[in-house]
Amino acid sequence: MGGLLSDGISLGLKNFFSIFLAYLLWALTIWIPYINVGTTIGIINLPIDLSKANGKMVSPVAIFDAKYRKYMGEFFSLTGLMSISLFPAFLFMIVPGIIISYGWSQAYYLMFDKETSPSDAMLQSTKITYGYKSTLFWAELLLSIVIGLIFGLIMWICVGLIGSNILGSIVFMLIFATAAVVKVGCSAVAYRELSKRLNE
Fold first, then answer.
1. CB distance 74 to 122 below 8 Å
2. Contact 78/122 with Cβ under 8 angstroms?
3. pLDDT tens digits for 145-160?
4. pTM of the predicted model as reported, rounded to 2 decimal places
């Protein structure tokens, strides 16, 4: 878990501006029909690109690549399959839904990276996350707690002690952006390591 967080944070921060710009471009174009599905798939694909970058910077404009639009059918099929399956799982005291969610957490990446069918991606994701779901859960929880504590402390200083709502708003946006970038970095490291288990 420590390696996942430290490597993920480092990878995300090294690519901060590229990831941030990719999200900004996605947000600015989300209202454009047809293009928005491709850019959403491109955003989902960012951890795959990061996991294969070998120290190079990822391109923020890669989310506009036409290749992502060819996955529209698979994207909606996988989203539908997971949503339909997870709904009853969450009805059973929430815990089964959380476990299955982490089991399928790599499905999108596998479908796009390995060009598998939606159902195969779900099966392969279940296989490679077996025995690692708790690691993914605790890493995400710990990261969320740390970011929340940092956010709370800095906001208390900015708004409570200094009394500046403008400074507080700027800090909020910076912390939110940093949290998103770090999450992408951690997802990239998790996928890079878990995808190695496909050949086991």
1. no
2. yes
3. 988 888 888 877 776 6
4. 0.87
